[in-house]
Every structure is written in C-alpha cells, then in structure tokens.
C-alpha cells in the first residue's frame, strides 16, 4: 500500500459526507496512517488553519512544536470554528488519504442513504451498522496489504514449548556428535506434545549466541514439514504438510540470537496428540542450540538427504537418540471459535490463555518416564483439559535442568571455589525472561519454581534468592500488569543422591520458603514443598515420590500438578 502516490481519480471526496461517517472512519484508520497523512498536508493548508484561529488564542499558545501547540487550543474555540471551514480542511486533508479508505467513505455514504430512505432507524442501530461495515471493509484493506488483523491474535495460544540453551562447542562425551557439529545434508525429526488443539498452527525456531563464537553462524534451513506422529520416527500417512516462512518461502535462515516464526499452516490438531516436525539442512548448520534433559527423543535420519516427507527412516548410528529439540522451541495453535468447546465469550477470545511453567529440572521433568509426558506441566495441562473445559488454556514447559535464578550456568568448584561455566544449564531466569516468557503467545499466567540450584550448587544466600524472585515478579508485572504470577515453594532435597544437602543450605531453603509463603504482592502460592515432604522426615521427599531424593518421579510430578489450585485460573 503506497501512501505517497494515490491515484488522482480516486482522491475525490463527496461534497456532503455525513459527520458520523467521518468520525467513524477517522476512528478506524490506524494511527500510523493518520500520522503519515498529516505529514503530507500541504503547508498552505496548515497556514489556512492558523489563519482561522483567533489571534487572542494564538497569543495564549506557548512557543512549542505544533503537537504541543494544538493541545493548548481551548476546546470551546475549536467548537466555535465555522463548520464550513472544517469541511474545507477535511476535503484538502482527505486528498492525502489512500484511495482504499476514501472508497470506503463513499460506500458508507451510499449504505447510509439506503438505510435511511425506506425506514426510520434509530441513531444507535445506525451507528452499529456503520461500525460493522467499516470494520469489515478495513479488514479487507489490511488483508490485501499483507497484514494480519490484530483481533486474530487473541485466538493464538502456546500449545508446546521448550527453552533452548546455547550451542555446545565443548566436548561432552555423554552427548551425540550432532551437538558439536550440527547438520549437513541431514534430516532431523522432532516430536512435540500438544497441550491445546486448534485449526491452524505455527512453529517457532531459535538460535542462541550467548558466550559462543561458533554459534554466531546463520543457520540455513532448506525445508520443514509437519505431520502426526505414529510411533517413534514414523509419521501417519497422509498427514505430512509443508511449512512455509515469510509469506510462502520454503527456505529460511535463523540469525544468531534470533527467532523465526512460520506462516500459519492449516492443520487441525487435538489436545494431547504428538506432532512430528521434520527439518532438513543441506548446508552446514553449525552446532545447534538445544534442550538437553527434557526426556523427549528426537530422531536423526539415515541415510543423508532430504527425508522430511518420508513415512519412516533408519536412524543415524552416531546419534540414535537425541535428548531434546534442536532449534525448534515452540508450537502455537489457532482457534477462531469454529471448534470451541462450550465457550461463552467467542467475541472476546478470553478462553485463549497460555500458562508458562518457568523453572529448573523439576519443571523440566527430570527422572520422569521418557516420552511419557509425565512432567508436572504436562500433567497440569491434563487437569486444565479435564476440569476447565470451558477454557482454552495451553501450557508451556520452560524448565531447564540446572537453571538458576540469578546466575546462568555458573557453578563454583574446588577449594577455594572457582566459578566454572556450565553452558548446558542455560542462561539464568532473569536473563531468559524476554525469550521464554515475554515473547510467548497470549501469556496470562506464570508459575515460578526455582532457587534450589542457587542454594545447592552456588551457595547463594537467602537474600540473593529472594531478591531474584522479587525481580522476576516485578519484571513480569511491568511487562503486563494483567499477567498473574504464582510462586512455588522450593522442594526438600535432604538425602539426595548428588550429596548437595547441608544443614546450612537447608536453613536458606527454609528462609526463602517463608518469604514465598508470606509475599503478599504475589497472585498465589503453590506449596510444592509441603506436598512432597516426608511426614516422618520433612526435610526430604517422600520415598515413594522420588527416585533420587532431589527430583520427583512420575507420581511426584502428579502430586505437584494436583497442588496447583485451579480456582486461581478462573
């Protein structure tokens, strides 16, 4: 849409445009369009405006810019300005308006005459009709211009998500070679477990560049396809669908530290089903960012080549089981109301809500059964689906193993302790909030569970952990005051198999939990510590709810999910 060169024959405006039509049109025109229009008003028009303002008023206006000066003109003076003058000015100003909008004015005038002629309609119903017609007309203009109408955003919700840590250039013998060298003429198939269904979807891909020279490369992706998972690396025949980017492009690039979101894809999904996202790189990708302990198996294809549409394939012998997604960080789904389950507020889209579970390995689901999706966020999404069926709530698991509130991937080792970077533990809570919380879709609730690694690995003081939690709360509220924030109490860890418990660290945990339980600005607290603690020895987790004394097991995560009070989400 070219604002600078409207066609001359389309720049005419009717001599008698109804006032209510002009008012409605001006309200519907985007602010950025009005700003551009005003910038193009000829100087002589502005001079005429100033000539019409009484001299005594101009004397009262401070010597400021035109924006400030216009605010100083008394309202009663503007009201007394001759109507003929404003009609003249409107004609000249509308000469700069894009032809598409003027066409809508003419159409609205004709509609107004047709409505008024045969019958007598109340002023209120007439305004409603005009507003609806203008909304539809402007939506068509914006769609033709390649813009997504903002109202549609309320129907998108986060359905699956995993946080990524930067590419690992260090040699970690427990990880497959792909983590060090990336892809070259290879296909990887990654599995996502949806917590919400819809009629469309879009995929999110990320690249990390923190503290790594080799991750500063641009990642070239040749093709991406999505299908329903059948079993392991096999997909359901007939469900394979091409994913495009940047308005229909197949190839795309991910720049260091950046994120790419696909075009919306028509693909009907259901709650709880698994999608297989197949990605092919024909050029060197460099070491990938990934999630290294989320207990989801991904599949590297063999032989090399583009196997994104293959029903199944053999696995690369060097990387038979990849531990988590690489580059792929999220799936959003869309539902505009056609497939709602007993929804009552379709027009407002209030049911589209994303819950972020933000935390460390306990949130990520460490030690739970692989590929069973029994981490506490997944089991919480089951509760939302079963108990709040009139709502459209998606849950994102944004937990990273070893993650800390205030220091990212740093652990003091040795005597005296020396800070050693552990990049596999990711950026700190505070460092990754923009990426993993604020940039997500329609976030309405955030559950914060963290601090145990700050205490057990970095020997942070209670004040340091508490100040970090306060900062997280304040930043989320500053970003959006309507977002509800919940804290979870730090769970017991005495007698864990890692040997990280001491009486001093326990005292810090107790002090932090006392703060969490008494912090009044928070929207709610879920007392995970009380749920998991052994009634005989409260400083440790009940033996039947843990396998290692630090992380809950499948039943432990279920108990955590049922600790969450769903009334807080109503």
Q: Mean of residue pLDDT?
A: 80
**CATH architectural grouping of the largest domain:** 3-Layer(aba) Sandwich
Radius of gyration, CA atoms, in whole angstroms: 29 Å
Q: What name is given to the CATH topology of the largest domain?
A: Rossmann fold
Query: How many domains is the backbone divided into?
Result: 3
CATH class descriptor name of the largest domain: Alpha Beta
Compute the number of helices. 18
- Write down how many β-strands occur, each being a DSSP E stretch of 2 or more residues: 21
The coarse silhouette is globular
Uncertain spans, ≥5 residues at pLDDT below 50? Answer: 1-17, 61-73, 77-81, 115-124, 144-151, 210-215, 338-350
Helical proportion, percent range: 25-40%
Tell me about the biggest sheet?
7 strands, antiparallel
Termini gap:
43 Å
Query: What do we call the CATH homologous superfamily of the largest domain?
Result: SGNH hydrolase
Structural class: alpha+beta
* Share in β-strands: 15-25%
Description:
By secondary structure, the protein is an alpha+beta fold. The chain folds into three domains: about 10-150, no CATH class; about 155-340; about 340-570, SGNH hydrolase (Rossmann fold). The protein has helices at about 20-30, 30-40, 45-50, 55-60, 65-70, 75-80, 85-95, 100-115, 125-145, 180, 360-365, 375-385, 430-440, 450-455, 460-480, 505-520, 530, 555-565, and strands at about 155-160, 185-195, 200-205, 220, 225-230, 235, 240-245, 250-255, 260, 265-270, 275-280, 300, 315, 330-335, 350-360, 390-400, 410-415, 420, 445-450, 485-490, 525. It starts with 18 loop residues before the first helix and ends in a 7-residue tail after the last helix. Residues about 1-15, about 60-75, about 75-80, about 115-125, about 145-150, about 210-215 and about 340-350 have low confidence and may be disordered.
